[in-house]
């Protein structure tokens, strides 16, 4: 007798469980849930310059500064907050994830003439 039950209970269970989950996932992607499409970017430090000097990224992305100099250390100091990274030496790197939109100008602590900007959009 069990094999003669109509198929609707099974379909209803699938509809009740799967459809809301699929809708929630679609909504999260449509709204740009933080971290959903986060990317990683690199800024090279060489010849006492940040390259690229201006970098445009999206909120939630991570930027990694890489010291490609042969002999000297550098740091990243954000102008607005004064927050400074640790000094990093040739071959080392330092990363920062940008959680808020805005324009972040920065310079090198030991070499203030070196400067750059990260523009963070939605």
Might you state the CATH topology name of one domain? Immunoglobulin-like
Structural class label = alpha/beta
Number of helical segments?
1
β-strand amount: 25-35%
The profile of the biggest β sheet is: 4 strands, mixed
Elements, N to C (H/E): HEEEEEEEE
Strands of the widest sheet, in order across it, are 2-1-4-6
Low-pLDDT residue spans: none
Can you say what the CATH homologous superfamily of one domain is?
Cupredoxins -  blue copper proteins
By CATH reckoning, the class of one domain would read Mainly Beta
Compute the separation of the termini in Å.
Answer: 58 Å
The count of DSSP E runs of length 2 or more, i.e. the number of strands, is 8
Helix content: 10-25%
Global outline: elongated
Task: Provide a descriptive summary of the structure in words.
Helices cover 19% and strands 34% of the residues. It has 122 residues and is an alpha/beta fold. The protein has a domain at 40-121: Immunoglobulin-like. The protein is elongated and about 80 Å long.
Tags for this entry?
single chain; 122 residues; Immunoglobulin-like; four-stranded mixed sheet
Can you lay out the helices and strands and say which pair or pack?
Blueprint: H1 8-30, E1 40-46, E2 49-51, E3 54-58, E4 62-67, E5 77-78, E6 93-97, E7 102-107, E8 115-121
Parallel strand pairs: 1-4, 3-8
Antiparallel strand pairs: 1-2, 4-6, 5-7, 7-8
Brief sketch in words of this structure:
The protein is α/β, with parallel strands linked by helices and 122 residues long. Helix content is 19%, strand content 34%.
